[in-house]
Amino acid sequence: MRIPALKEIIPRILCIDKLQRQTIISLTSLLILTLTGFISTIYFAHVLGAEGLGGYKIFLAYLAVFSLLSEGGISAAMIKRISEGGDSGSYYSASLFLRAVLIAGVISGIIIAKPAFIDLTESGLYYLLILAVISGGIYNLIISANYGAGMVGMSQISALGNETGRITSQVLTVFFGFGSAGLAAGHIAGFITGAAIAFRYRTVRLARFGMEHIRSIYTYAKWSFLSCAGTTITAYADTILVGYFLTNYEVGIYGIALQFSAIATLAAAAMINALFPQLSLWHKEGEYSMIENAVKKSLAYALIPALPAVTGGIILSDNILYFLYGADFAEGAAALRIILPAQIFSIFLLTGIMCLNAFNRPKESFRVTISAAALNICLNLLLIPLFGINGSALAFLATMALSALYSAVLLRDTLPLKPDIPVVKDIITSSAMMAVFILAQREVFAPDSWPVLFAIVISGALLYSGILCTKNRMIKEDIQEVLKKSGMIKS
User: Fold this and answer.
1) What is the predicted pLDDT for the residue at 6?
2) N or C: which terminus of the chain carries fewer CB neighbours within 10 A?
3) Residue 479 lies in a domain
4) Is the pTM of this model over 0.85?
5) Count of other CB atoms within 10 angstroms of residue 104
6) How many domains does the chain have?
7) What is the DSSP letter of 177?
8) What local confidence, expressed as pLDDT, does residue 486 receive?
9) Residues 133, 305: Cα–Cα separation, whole Å
10) What does R_g of the chain's alpha carbons equal in angstroms?
């Protein structure tokens, strides 16, 4: 069978439905990013160990906090206003002005508070933190303008350039012995690469703006900022608190478990990226039936890879961490078993927050994220001293479950936050049969090396895919439709 050349595939992909096309591009980009990040993290884990990776995770936590302060919710507000149509150039310019003011203020604060960053100064990461905040702000502003204009595919390509530049630079700097500082420097290189790509293909141009544009951005941004603050705290509070109560060694182990578990949310992230601009437009036009159908289908399709990933990860968690990352990281197997189910709840939580923002309800989105942050901090403070990193994993699970429920309650009068039930039943049945198959293989072929582990994972995935496509013709037909339109198979 002749495989179409790339120059033949691209025009055919452009003929696919816009939402499907953007989701495919987003998912493909995320898969490439995940694969390259997965391989590079294995390398970093073996070279730097848990201690070295733990120091880098602490740097990322600082970067997240200061990036949040320098962002101030402006990017989300700009995306929303540009996606609605109208004075896109004026909103872009107003956002640029506000971001410049915030970045200047944050950098001034970091310089004044330099004596407090003893750990960053000693490890050579202090000045890299400043450069990362600046370069990250520029990258975020440009890519957000493209995303708001509906260029989801180009935004994902820019993000791919960012991650590719980051990983390439990090591998080189770690190879030449720069350790955690090399990982931090790679972040800056990635931001620069991604910003350059996004700038080259931007469609929104600078234009004159007035106080009405600033006020419009500010009105949305203040709640978006508070919502993002809650999300950031939820994402990094556990890392900071594990570092506070324990050591960088435990931070590294927990960070790897958390990072690996995110594989379950890949499809959901791709669909959320593709859906937001379209949902925002549909909401403005009052097309609620289209919104409900899109969300229901996206949730179901997000669970197709998520449920088997969680199931297989729980069964093989100790083997995965040992053979991929090293003996030190196998200590995080119990935490990984707890974190993986939490990612299922996070799919519903992220979808709920996306819908609230698309429906121009950032205040309610803030209520979800700030309550999640508060709950996560309280549970971490209670459970880490008692159970170590397993306590932090339990806090994450409880936070995701309760927050997903809260977002569904807030949306109940507008949009039922539930997937296509018949599809979900088939996914659960197929995952259960795959689980039995993997358990049997584990008993017969003890996974005592990574090739055996890889063979078990691949055979389980193939069995799951075959059962699911046999049980659910709609999924099979949807996949065949996309492949036919792209020219990968004959009509």
Assistant:
1) 41
2) N
3) no
4) no
5) 12
6) 1
7) T
8) 44
9) 34
10) 22
Locate tokens 């429920």: which residue? 405
| Residue type, position 434, single letter | M
Positive/negative CA dihedral, 250, 253, 256, 262? negative
Q: How many angstroms separate the Cα of 104 from the Cα of each of 66, 229, 234, 424?
A: 12, 19, 26, 49
Does any domain span residue 446? no
Q: What is the pLDDT of residues 178-193, one digit of tens each?
A: 888 889 899 899 999 9
What percentage of the chain exceeds 90 in pLDDT? 22
- Judging by beta carbons within 10 Å of its beta carbon (0-12, 13-18, 19+), is residue 253 exposed, middle or buried? buried
Q: What is the CA angle 190-73-239, rounded to 5?
A: 60
Ramachandran area for residue 388 (φ above 0: left; ψ -120 to 50: alpha; else beta): left
Angle ∠(359,222,401) on CA atoms, nearest 5: 60
Which candidate, 252, 390, 403, 277, places its Cα nearest to that of 334? 390
- Domain, as residue range, for 325: 6-419
Distance CA 487, CA 246 (A): 54
- The answer as to whether 405 is a domain residue is yes
Tell me the C-alpha distance between 375 and 381, whole Å: 10
- Indicate whether 258 belongs to any domain: yes
Please name the residues in contact with 413: beta carbons below 8 A apart, sequence gap of 6 or more: none
Please report, as a single letter, which amino acid is at residue 334: A
pLDDT for the residue numbered 272: 79
- What is d(CA 140, CA 146) in angstroms, rounded to the nearest whole number? 10
pLDDT at 343: 94
Nearest to 361 by CA among 278, 279, 292: 279
Helices (H), 149-210: 152-175, 179-200
- How far, in Å, CA of 363 to CA of 366, rounded? 5
In terms of Cα–Cα distance, which of 38, 394, 40, 114 is closest to 242?
Answer: 394
Find the DSSP H helices in 263-332.
266-285, 288-325
Residue segments in the chain with a per-residue pLDDT below the cut of 50: 1-15, 483, 485-489, 491
Give the whole-angstrom CA distance, residue 204 versus residue 218: 20
Separation CA 359–CA 354 (nearest Å): 9
Report residue 39 as tokens.
């391989």
Instruction: Report the pLDDT value the prediction gives residue 335, as an integer from 0 to 100.
Output: 95
Residues 194 and 217 sit within 8 Å (Cβ to Cβ): no
Backbone phi, then psi, for 297, in 5-degree steps? -70, -40
Burial class (CB in 10 A: 0-12, 13-18, 19+), 464: buried
Write down the pLDDT at residue 86.
Answer: 67
The candidate with the shortest Cα–Cα distance to 283, out of 196, 379, 358, 175, is 358
- The amino acid at residue 325 is Y
